[in-house]
Amino acid sequence: MTRPITAGVDGTEESLAALDWAAREAVRRGLTLRVVQAWTFQPYEAIDAADPGTQARWVRDALDEAVRGVTARHAGLDVVTDVVSGDTVETLLDAAAEAELLVLGSRGHGPVVGFLLGSVGQQVIVGANRPVVLVRAGDQPSAEAAGREIVVGQQGEPEDSAETLRFAFEIAARRGATVRAVRAWSLPPVFAYSPGSMQLLDEAGGLEPFEKKALGAALQPMRELFPDVPVIEHLEIGSAGQVLLSVAGRAQLMVVGRRARRTGVGARIGSVAHGVLHHAPCPVAVIPHTE
């Protein structure tokens, strides 16, 4: 089954930037662009829109106008649109399940944190079984120019980040970009040392060589699958979120994995993904980890 690139829109400047990003990616991949807008009737007594039919027409007209702009910029792009009456989270999760990837707008960090980092967006990221890309207002095609990297976070064992790395390398291969693979490490607390771990560290020659070897092992399968993609191995001591953000300025896209979990106070996507989504100036792709 051929999946589309799907953009979720709501008329905001951020979602229109996401729509443009999704259109460019659909052109690169030769895929259909699906544009989805969730809509729920809101009774407004003060204006002449008290009936669902009137509001539905407004939503459809605004969506059609946004799509006309995209098709004008990308001649030949196959576009389908859906206005869905229903819950926003459920609509976006259904759309993600049928998509190659879901693209949404995000305000990121500021006086008001964008809805995609609030309840709606967090639930979508937690529940989506496909990659979700977050795009900020003002994102421009020029940000995808040569010289700007695909930055991807790698952690744990090779299998822990295989899907995240593969996504980054596939994007880089299509764009002729370099992959900067980032692995952050820190000194473990004294109580974390064990005879087994000490033996592994001794065999590797110390902590930093051990981490470098782990990064190389995770990248080796991707180097074999994508031999033409240039790779920079970035190993740095510090927290993963801080190290990733330190190189975000050179990125055209940042790719992070997530292991979603639910707690008594709601859904959580992990501190690294959460921090990058708030502060990275570039689009961010969040890749679900298959358990």
Our count of domains comes out at: 2
The CATH C-level class name of the largest domain:
Alpha Beta
Radius of gyration: 21 Å
What oligomeric state best describes the polypeptide chains here? single chain
Taking the sheet with the most strands, its summary is:
10 strands, mixed
Helical proportion, percent range: 40-55%
Largest sheet: spatial strand order:
3-2-1-4-5-12-9-6-7-8
Order of helices and strands: EHEHEHEHEEHEHHEHEEEHE
Binned strand content = 15-25%
Describe the structure.
By secondary structure, the chain is of the alpha/beta class. It folds into 2 domains: 135 residues, Rossmann fold (3-Layer(aba) Sandwich); 143 residues, Rossmann fold, CATH 3.40.50. Helices cover 40% and strands 22% of the residues. It contains 9 helices and 12 strands. Strands 3-2-1-4-5-12-9-6-7-8 form a 10-stranded mixed β-sheet, sandwiched between helices. The chain has a two-stranded antiparallel sheet with strand order 10-11. α6 packs across α7 and α8 runs parallel beside α9. About 3% of the residues have low confidence. Belongs to the universal stress protein A family. It comes from Streptomyces spinosisporus. It holds the Pfam family Usp. InterPro entries: Rossmann-like_a/b/a_fold, Universal_stress_UspA, UspA. This is Universal stress protein.
